[in-house]
Amino acid sequence: MAEFDLVVRGGTVGTAYDLFEADIGIVDGKIDAIGRNLARGKEEVDAKGKLVLPGGIDSHCHIEEMSPGGGVQEESFASGSAAALAGGTTSFICFLQQWKGHTLTESAPGYAERARQSRADYSFHQIITDPMPEVLEKEVPALIAKGVRSLKVFLTYDPLQLTDAQYLEVLATARRHGAMVTVHCENFDAISWRIEKLLAAGLTDPLQHAWARPPLVEREATHRAIALAELVDQPIQVFHVSCEEAAGEVARAKARGLKVWGETCPQYLTLSHEDLDQPDFGGAKAVCSPALREKGESERVWARIKDGTLDIVTSDHCGFSFATAKRNPGSSGYGQGGAVQRADGMPAFNAIPNGMPGIETRLPVLFSEGVSKGRISINAFVRITSANAARLFGLQGRKGTIAPGADADLVVWDPQMERKVEVARMHQAIDYTPWEGLDVKGWPVVTIRRGEIAVRDNEVIAAPGSGSFLPRGPYDVIKPTGTVPDGFDAASVT
Ligand code: DUC
Ligand code: ZN
Ligand code: ZN
């Protein structure tokens, strides 16, 4: 009789710190044994000559978000999770929305039910845009108790931005109830001022999106977000660090012993202003925030991955099709300065929905540009794509590792496979990829989610609804340091 439900046989197993040859035996969706010459499984995956790495965790992606006007993002949980799995990501964390002027309960009704269509495992960060007492005192504590153990705040975007006073209240609430706070760091007023002046000067092209938000607006807000978190003694993660100026702020915070972590995304490691400066409005495909930087900046961001300043690489998948939403001024909520339209009918740079698809390409692009090109080791790749996300967001032990008792989320990589990135072969709902035509070396050939073969050779087998919600309990990373200015712990006074 077979001892295991599934055996992944003969691969090179990579974790955050180890690389060794082994078979992996799986029972009931969990890793049961790791060793040589394991007994037969009811099913077997031949991994000879291949790498076996933990399933990716994409701890920052926007899926099927709903706007107060009734619009819903085109990337559904069914399509977005198919794309995730095909690209080697077995778990993701997306966002529960809050609409300004509404409680959490009133915002995006039915969103958590929609998420049940996911084929990958999933969890949520709760966005806070309107920290009214009902929200901070009642709804957030209840949500944290249910396992939504991270909050997301934006320091810019018209419908999302928090003032510093509001941000402090969110930090203090997270401190009291035990949650991570994640922050989009850009200076709202500085960007609004630059947008106004650029539009007044008649400069409306997608490239001017980057001119409206240069690195210093990100550096300033990153500094402020960290300083205010220090004042409250609340751990934070700085989302999507795009440049050395902001990364330097994270590095200085870490050097001072603060509980601050940094995230970046493949777009900041591979794309630049050139992608914003394309004919036929093509630069709109590359409009995201923070904006892409000048050529050469990417290598500085890679250097901050290598020195450990940046802990995680996520997709910030936020897809708007080029044929439709990218041409629809102000349609997303991710914009600033009004729904300005140009004479040719296209949105001015400020009104192009901010965001790009990336949940399916995150790992292949990063593997190819990172591991295959010799910038990072296989272990570093595992750390920044799954292990660190598990540690920082309360999934350690269960996800992001290959160890007995962990969920059997495994990806078999062919490190020699050469392929072009082509949207025609992808599973996302969005009609383009910013990496179209990129030659990559290394591709995930089999994705296993909790012991089930979810994708084989680019064919998605996992059904909608087969993913599970991942509640996250209290964990050490989110505990405060115990150090506050003058010994006066303002967050404990309610
Ligand atoms: N940045 C984007 O480009 N899109 C969605 C949200 C964000 O912060
Ligand atoms: Zn953001
Ligand atoms: Zn985002």
Question: What would the keywords be for this entry?
Answer:
single chain, 494 residues, alpha/beta, TIM Barrel, eight-stranded parallel beta sheet, binds dihydropyrimidine-2,4(1H,3H)-dione, binds zinc ion
Number of separate helices = 13
Average predicted local confidence, pLDDT: 97
Order of helices and strands: EEEEEEHEHEHEHEHHHEHEHHHEHHEEEE
CATH hierarchy: architecture of the domain at 56-325 and 355-367: Alpha-Beta Barrel
Based on CA atoms alone, the radius of gyration comes out at 22 Å
Approximately how much helix is present in the residues?
25-40%
CATH-defined superfamily of the domain at 56-325 and 355-367: Metal-dependent hydrolases
State the shape.
Answer: globular
Low-confidence stretches: none
* CATH class category of the domain at 56-325 and 355-367: Alpha Beta
What name is given to the CATH topology of the domain at 56-325 and 355-367?
TIM Barrel
Approximate strand percentage? 15-25%
Can you count the beta strands? 17
Sheet/helix structural class: alpha/beta
Instruction: Characterize the biggest β-sheet.
Output: 9 strands, mixed
Q: Name the ligand types.
A: dihydropyrimidine-2,4(1H,3H)-dione, zinc ion
Spatial separation of the terminal alpha carbons = 62 Å
Textual characterization of the structure:
The protein is α/β, with parallel strands linked by helices and 494 residues long. The chain has a domain at 56-325 and 355-367: TIM Barrel, CATH 3.20.20.140. It has 13 helices and 17 strands. The chain has helices spanning 77-86, 111-115, 133-145, 164-177, 188-200, 207-212, 215-232, 244-255, 266-270, 273-276, 297-306, 362-372, 378-392, and strands spanning 4-14, 19-27, 30-35, 41-46, 51-54, 56-58, 89-96, 121-127, 150-154, 180-184, 236-238, 260-264, 310-313, 410-420, 439-449, 452-456, 459-460. The strands form two sheets. Strands 1, 2, 3, 4, 5, 14, 15, 16 and 17 form a nine-stranded mixed β-sheet that branches. Strands 6-7-8-9-10-11-12-13 form an eight-stranded parallel β-sheet, with helices on both faces. Helix 2 (111-115) links the parallel strand 7 (89-96) and strand 8. Helix 3 (133-145) packs parallel to helix 4 (164-177) and helix 7 (215-232) runs parallel beside helix 8 (244-255). The structure holds dihydropyrimidine-2,4(1H,3H)-dione (DUC) and zinc ion (2 copies). The site of dihydropyrimidine-2,4(1H,3H)-dione has 9 residues, from loops.
